Amino acid sequence: MILNFPIFWFSAPAMLKVWIDRVLVSGICYGGKRFYDQGGLAGKKALVTVTLGGREHMFGEEAIHGPLQDMLRPILRGTLAYVGFDVLEPFVAWHVPYISDEARQQFLVDYTQRLQHLSDDLALVFPRLSQFDGQLYPLPYGA
Description:
It is built from three helices and four strands. It is of the alpha/beta class and 143 residues long. Strands 1, 2, 3 and 4 form a four-stranded parallel β-sheet that branches. The chain has one domain: Rossmann fold (3-Layer(aba) Sandwich). It is 28% helix and 12% strand. The longest helix is centred in the C-terminal third of the chain and has 16 residues.
C-alpha cells in the first residue's frame, strides 16, 4: 500500500485519519494479540510518501522542527506497523510549494526510481510479539 499525502501542522491530513478509521478495522486488521508482526496485514508492504513546505535542513535532531520521523511515528508505527505492514522508509519531497519546475521534475524522477525498486527495500524495525511475554512485558534481551 502506498499512502501519499502532504504534512499539515506536523501531521497527516484529517481526511486520511478518517479513511484509516474506516478501512483498517478491528477484527480484520488487528485485535486481541493480532498486531505488529501478527497483524492482519502481515507480509504486505507499506510506503508513506509525504510532501512538505519546509526545507530538509529544518527537520532533524537539532533542527528547528525536530525529526520528521517524530511527526510520522503515529502513522508509521501506530497505524501501519500496528496492523502488520512491513513499513518501508518514507519518501519525502521537501519544500514542494516553493521549488523550481526542474527540482519538482527531479523529485518525480527520484520517486519513480524508488517505486521501481520497492521490492529491494528493507522494512523499518518495529516490535515483534515474540519479543514480549503473554502479558506483553518485554522479554529479557536474547531470550
